[in-house]
Design goal:
The protein is of the alpha/beta class and about 625 residues long. About 35% of the residues lie in helices and about 20% in strands. The protein starts with a strand and ends in an 18-residue tail after the last helix. The chain binds 6-O-phosphono-alpha-D-glucopyranose (G6P).
Amino acid sequence: MCGIVAYLGDKEAQPLLLEGLRRLEYRGYDSSGMAVLNGKGLEVVKKVGRIQQLERALSGQPLHGTLGICHTRWATHGKATEINAHPHTDASGKLAIVHNGVIENYGTLKKKLSDKGFQFRTETDTEVLAFLIGFYFDTLNSETENRLEMAVMEALREVTGTYGLVAIHEDQPGVMVGARRGSPLVLGIGPHEHFLASDVSAVAAHTQTVAHLRDFDVVTIDRNGYRLKSLSQNQAGLEISQIEYQSGVAEMGDFPHFMLKEIFEQPVSIQNAVRGRLNLEESTAQLGGLNLNPQELREIDRIVITACGTALHAGMVGEYIIESLAHVPVEIEYASEFRLRNSPMDRRTLVIAVSQSGETEDTLGALREARRKGHRVLGICNNVASTLARETDGGVYMYAGPEVSVAATKSFTSQTIIFVLLGLLLGRMRFLSASQGRGIIEAIEALPDQITQVLKQSSHIRDIAKKYSHSHSMLFFGRQMQYGIALEGALKMKEISYIHAEGHPTAELKHGIIALVDEKTPSVFLCPKDGAYDKNINNLQQIKARKGPVIAVATEGNEEIVQHADDVIFIPEAPEYTAPILSVVALQLFAYHMAVILGKDVDKPRNLAKSVTVP
Ligand code: G6P
């Protein structure tokens, strides 16, 4: 899982490649590297760690040349070491490739090449691919036109697995060859230059004319332009489109971390998700992008929501919201499970794929499987230029703006409010009266101010975090619509503070989890005033009876809770379908402050990546 940028044009490649790479850092950041072709031949520089390490190395010793490739890595095969970083070279050292994806049969290919006498330097699947392409390159006559293209195609015919890749070779100095299967690769077309990259953000500052390669496409770029071939029978031309360019990388402003900035953006990002989507006259929501007419919406009799990570937790809250507001049965499925499972669904089942990036491999796999079976798939997504946005039948954009911090925050609340909008829309076509619809709209409109109320407690939440910063383990409990928040609160805590944290449905604590309770293990109890409140208080007392410290997230004005809990974070009074958005903001701040107190790298936690583009 990695990011690729390649350049061939009339400018110096290095600064353009580095700039593109910085925009792809969300795809992984354990090592990076660059290769440039120039009069001296192939020059390669690789570094372990963040892209700044590579920048530092290159600032002392720049690579000159107008053709180059680079890569930011998230280790799949082989540790995050310099030697395992990309670009990988072949046995001759003249060919270099960058690769995103997984070569599943690399063991077999490695054996085949080892039997021919090749000796490998790394444990990576990409090096095997580099050797294989190099092997075919060397078998071709040096006069062969398209030698690199032919070698790439020959090698890829033997490959099982996924790849977005770019290859260059010292003996064909004005050429780069890109290929795609499963992992995205975008061609950027400029007047005297071409780019290949994992996504448009890496090229958008230089050209807005792009084409997304399709599976099995092989594109060869030289000084005269590009040429497309295919490893399948499909020889159709590329679909060229114009993208919108928003200048500037997201800035942190006065905030010390992107995560805090994004937490504090939520009053606005919620407004952006809702803007133009409330129909006050008819007390409903309007979601034009669904591409479904009222009859089709009325016919939906089951919804399957599929996603990964934080987006999955938003889907879990969405399941309760839609069932409660619209009475349509909803199931939530891990995308990684759903894509492999043969879940029975009839033709009136709607599938909704949720993803901030729109590039998560498992979520794309799930949506493709559903579409293959003829189901209509909608997307809830932030990145309008993403694969998910292109491959779904319709959907709802979040308009949350760039989310840079690896730990997702504002995307979660935007996804959740979109489920409220969907619940309202579907509900108003079924059981909800106009006055009930109005009530929901009022609750939605109250949210930005209510989120601001929670944000004002940031320093109080920091004090609580400090008090519990020596904990090795934490438990998070919530029921119904707060259950997904318990999972999300625990996920945030482990992602950025590395404290072991588990989320559970509150009542389950009696069935095993209570064995973990002791004086040193705090429990976060989500217990706003709702239908489950009394039951929650019973459970809370079961923890207190075992001397477990309790941090309650409760509704403002609830004076009784102070007697039961050791610490309380109050959230404004809200109906059960918007209250999760308020309680999650409190838990985002809790995790954030904990990570800062513990001195962790908040925006780029260890071992994680913003977007997981491998299965
Ligand atoms: C990774 C990120 C998570 C994110 C998940 C799904 O695991 O680290 O923060 O929730 O992917 O990402 P998506 O872009 O599909 O919402």
